[in-house]
Amino acid sequence: MKPPLRAGFSASLQRELRHLRADRADLALVTVLPLLMLLAMAWLFSASVMRAVPIAVVDLDHSAESRLLTRMLDASPGVAVASQPPTLAQAQTQLRRLEVFAVVLVPRDATRQALRGGEGTVLAYYNASYLTTGQSAARDITDAVGAWNARLLTERIGLQVGPGKLRAAPIRVQSEILYNPARSYELFLLPLVFPAILSLALALAAASSVGREVRDGTLAAWLGDAPWAALAGKLLPYVLLFAVYGAAGVLYLAYLRGDGVAGSLLLLLLAQPLFYLACAAYAVLFVGVTRDMGTALSVVGLSLGTALAFSGATFPVIDAPLFTRIWNLLLPLTAYVKLQTQQQFVGAAGAVSLWPLATLALMILVAGGIGGWRLIATARALRPAASAQGASP
User: How many whole angstroms separate alpha carbon 227 and alpha carbon 237?
Assistant: First the structure.
């Protein structure tokens, strides 16, 4: 005879597997839908690097040097000179129409002043309401103007004053891009989008699975005499399935699209079941507290569905309002993204990532513990009512 814990775990697991085989909609939610979303995201960001962002060049200088700058800007891979309006006002109109995302203005006599030993100025304006696109254009404009400036210095000014009189700036900034030197949006966004999508789908599936027992009045019968084992058996297929999806996403980005794993692949793979179990624990918490399947699903959407925006990876939470910082710390995605960045891209020591792992484990214990306790208490309260109802004639 099986011990009660093992029997409760096995019975709950088999019960859930039978439900998935019988309910094609729930089965599609945890198989077809996540895979389709991952494939769609991988295809959308497969271009990796933003190319040919349209810009406008307003050349009021009309010199050979300013025309050279226009050609160098157009030759830059990140931007393309889409128009050359005669006035800044016309360029601003194009900017407002979203026909271009940045404007380069070469003022009148800018190169003449530079060739005379003065200081010329080239102005660049970019659309910060499209922050990523505008900043990408601004970086390539800066690079092109820097290359043009160096060429002007050596080929024109050096010939006029003599190479011996050319002096470099006494102090200059040399910046190096770390961990994503190609500035790939694929390697920036997909490591965030993949776990965000999967965690939401997993939490919805877990909340639906547990909430269904509350909705159908089978909570007490399902939990039985070994409630914690029954809860673990119900969640196991979802956690294992999504941990496999998460591991596949990590391996795809690391070895098919990236340069491998800079740190510990073992820690990254270990984080998968912990992360998705933490998300499932939150789903159990929401069902246990609300005791309503529909409400729990709504709370999952409002919390884990917005996790990407509050994780600190896309929008900064440094010096954010207190609520934002607390919300950031309460999200499983925050801890997972920190570990993923440390191990997949930065190559941090393994000991550094023990804290995010411990955070995920704590979330599992606290959220799962409170949610499970509330479900058990609800089941116990329902048993006397069911017994009394059954005893009445």
Answer: 17
Tell me whether strands 53-59 and 79-83 are parallel, antiparallel or unpaired. Answer: parallel
- Residue 62's nearest CA partner among 122, 111, 115 is 111
Residues 281, 203 contacting (CB under 8 angstroms): no
CA distance 153 to 176: 23
Among residues 278, 304, 48, which one has the least CA distance to residue 181? Answer: 48
Pair 273, 240: CB distance under 8 Å: yes
Which tens digits make up the pLDDT trace of 112-161?
Answer: 776 666 667 888 999 888 877 888 888 889 888 888 877 777 666 555 55
Order the strands of the 102-106 sheet from edge to edge. 79-83, 53-59, 102-106, 123-126
Contact 27, 21 (CB under 8 A): yes
CA distance between the termini of the chain:
36
| Cβ–Cβ < 8 Å for 365, 382 | no
| Per-residue model confidence as pLDDT tens digits over 193-209 | 999 999 999 999 999 99
Query: Tokens standing for 253?
Result: 């980005």
**How far, in Å, CA of 383 to CA of 377, rounded?**
10
Tokens of 131: 């922050």
Whole-angstrom Cα distance, residue 251 to residue 266? Answer: 12
Q: What is the number of alpha carbons within 13 Å of residue 202 lying toward its C-beta? A: 33
Cβ-contact 198, 34 below 8 angstroms: yes
